[in-house]
Specification:
Chain lengths: ~325, ~300
């Protein structure tokens, strides 16, 4: 296990350095003067320019600049936002809970619906039920989620008036941030209706963000299940006279879950990409909307820092997924 | 249905090649492909889209950017207030939505073709080199691909477009770059698997140089997974380009690109459902047709799934 971890780190560290080089050089690839881009000041006399350039360390050799940047990152300094003048890392931690809450709900939505749907489709292979599930899954997989979000808004917020259009909670509620998760904080606050309001704000974004993972998980579960159901040990279990529920639920499902867990792990990247669109549509104050807004505001330090933090998170999650393989699949225990 | 489809290839293949083994292979391919009803529907719908794109100026009733100031936000013909002059209604500046959707087919298919071609050709070149030479070349290439894969694709494309400047061409370059690693990985894995086979060794002994070995001997035997991945990228390219257009970073107005049309329509979401619904529906159906085709291709090309 320890050797495996070392091996993974040997790949991960150079990759992270590469990612940091990309984030570092991106600002220097932009057309225009990096001094102006990083400080956000458009008009500068030469003295002011030299001063800021020195302040930001831009008058030093590029290699020193990069090492300095890397040193900063290792100490948690990801630069300062031009528009808010706040450190990028602070802003990130302020907004990340919103994205995390949404992503967790979306994954839960996808898993809770996707796995049973895939299992049932596999058991009833070839039936109209199987075809309906797989047809729906393919539609979900092909869905432009930004449009899907707009459709749901038209239907549930516009016509039926069931859900609010945007934000995380109604403005009439105000309570201290404890966990950053609106569902938890609203419960802790004990205010009547706060939890319900948070819930109704969360439901449409959850569906939108969870749609593609749901489709992928249902398809993957079905094919993994089909493979497992034709194995000898499943036939043995049936021959022993075990109930169909036990054969499918215990003997087959456990082994079918191995590729499915991989798929769920891979959805993290999909989630963060989907968050860009979902959060924009629902004005959800999370990382995705923050990145899009920063691109439009030309807040380059934020884009640079955010890119690096997000890539770092994805790499860490992938490592964790790799490590959990051993837990669910003894055959590849390290 | 089964009769019609098994007879069909004989005609098409004749024009394709006189080589009997090739003809047999194509017949076999079509046999498995046509077993999947969804794939055949997807295929014919795709053909329909190609025709629509090619003959857009003849089919579309209006020019895509022609504005009729007297007909603003006219609903589709079946709704009250709709008119048969604008079958699918008009948008906020009086442009015919049907015509814009038809012209939009051109952009989406163009995006799919260009992005897939760049990603496929680039990915094959890099992947074959990595898989054939191994060693430090392979390590460097694969680490580079890992770096690209560490970013969520849409985010990286968004930032690249922010660097290159918004626009359709830059969006396509960014998406192609982001899709590249998948092709590199697939090609590399396939080349590594094939490299030690006897026929490759035989060709090497017979005096074939590395270029011939790489592209003439090995590559044709690695194509099946690449073709399947290519259909997947085709549909994903359309989705991502539409997403960038929707975020205002792809094709710029007044281009009748479907994602850009959606972005322009957003403010009318609660007033005029058709300006929002129809462009998205066009994206969904197109992507769905291509994905259906992709499923059929996978069934037909993947020997592991073939029933013997």
């Amino acid at each position: 296990m320890f050797r495996f971890l070392l091996g993974r780190l040997a790949v991960l560290i150079p990759t992270f350095i590469g990612v940091s080089i990309i984030a570092f050089s991106f600002i220097r690839l932009l057309p225009g003067d990096p001094v102006a881009l990083l400080s956000g000041e458009r008009v500068m006399d030469p003295a002011r320019h030299a001063e800021i350039s020195h302040q930001l360390g831009l008058d030093r050799p590029i290699v020193i600049q990069y090492l300095d940047y890397l040193w900063g990152i290792l100490h948690g300094d990801f630069g300062t936002s031009i528009s808010t003048k706040k450190p990028v890392i602070d802003q990130f931690f302020e907004l990340f809970p919103a994205t995390l809450e949404l992503s967790l709900c979306a994954i839960a939505f996808a898993v809770i619906l996707g796995i049973p749907a895939g299992v049932l489709a596999a058991i009833k292979r070839g039936s109209w039920f199987d075809q309906a599930i797989m047809g729906t899954a393919l539609i979900g997989f092909s869905m432009p989620i930004f449009w899907w979000g707009l459709l749901l808004i038209i239907l549930f917020s516009g016509m039926l008036q069931w859900t609010p259009v945007s934000g995380r909670i109604s403005l009439m509620f105000f309570f201290p941030t404890v966990t950053g998760f609106m569902l938890v904080d609203s419960l802790i606050s004990g205010q009547a209706g706060a939890f319900k309001s948070a819930m109704s704000h969360l439901i449409l974004p959850t569906i939108v963000l969870g749609t593609i993972p749901l489709a992928v998980i249902a398809r993957q579960t079905r094919s993994a299940m089909l493979e497992v159901l034709s194995e000898d040990y499943v036939r043995t279990a049936r021959a022993k006279g075990l109930s169909a529920f036990r054969v499918v639920g215990v003997h087959a499902l456990r082994n079918a879950m191995i590729p499915v867990v991989t798929t769920i792990g891979l959805q993290v990247g999909v989630m963060l990409a989907g968050a860009i669109l979902t959060e924009t549509i629902f004005s959800w104050p999370g990382i995705g909307k923050w990145m899009v807004d920063s691109v439009f505001r030309r807040d380059y330090p934020v884009i640079q820092g955010g890119l690096l933090i997000i890539a770092g998170i994805i790499m860490l999650v992938n490592l964790l997924v790799d490590l959990t393989y051993g837990l669910i699949n003894p055959r590849i225990r390290h | 249905m089964a009769d019609a489809t098994t007879q069909a290839p004989a005609v098409t293949v004749d024009a394709l090649s006189k080589d009997p083994s090739r003809r047999a292979r194509f017949a076999e391919f079509w046999y498995y492909f046509s077993e999947n009803r969804g794939a055949v529907i997807g295929f014919w719908f795709f053909v329909f889209l190609v025709l629509l794109a090619l003959f857009a100026p003849i089919i579309a009733p209006y020019a895509p950017n022609a504005q009729d100031r007297a007909a603003i936000l006219v609903p589709p013909f079946w709704q009250e207030g709709g008119s048969s002059a604008f079958l699918l209604g008009t948008d906020a500046v009086g442009r015919d939505i049907l015509s814009r959707l038809i012209y939009g087919t051109r952009y989406s298919l163009f995006i799919g073709v260009i992005v897939t071609t760049i990603a496929l050709v680039g990915g094959i070149l890099i992947g074959v080199v990595a898989g054939y030479f191994r060693g430090w070349v392979d390590t460097v290439i694969m680490r580079l691909m890992d770096i690209i894969l560490a970013f969520p694709s849409l985010l990286l494309a968004l930032v690249l477009v922010a660097v290159l400047g918004p626009g359709l061409i830059n969006a396509m370059i960014a998406i192609a770059l982001v899709f590249q690693p998948h092709f590199v990985r697939l090609t590399r894995a396939a080349v590594m698997a094939e490299k030690t086979r006897d026929y490759v060794v035989a060709a090497k002994v017979a005096g074939a140089g590395p270029l011939r070995l790489m592209f003439k001997t090995i590559l044709p035997n690695c194509m099946a997974p690449l073709i399947v991945q290519a259909t997947l990228s085709f549909s994903n390219a359309i989705l991502d380009a539409a997403a960038l257009g929707f975020l205002g970073m792809g094709a710029q107005p007044p281009t009748p690109e479907w994602g850009t049309m959606l972005a322009e329509a957003r403010e009318f979401i609660l007033r005029a459902w058709w300006v929002v619904t129809l462009p998205g529906l066009a994206i969904l159906i197109t992507v769905l047709a291509i994905n259906l085709m992709g499923d059929g291709l996978r069934d037909a090309l993947d020997p592991k799934l073939k029933r013997s």
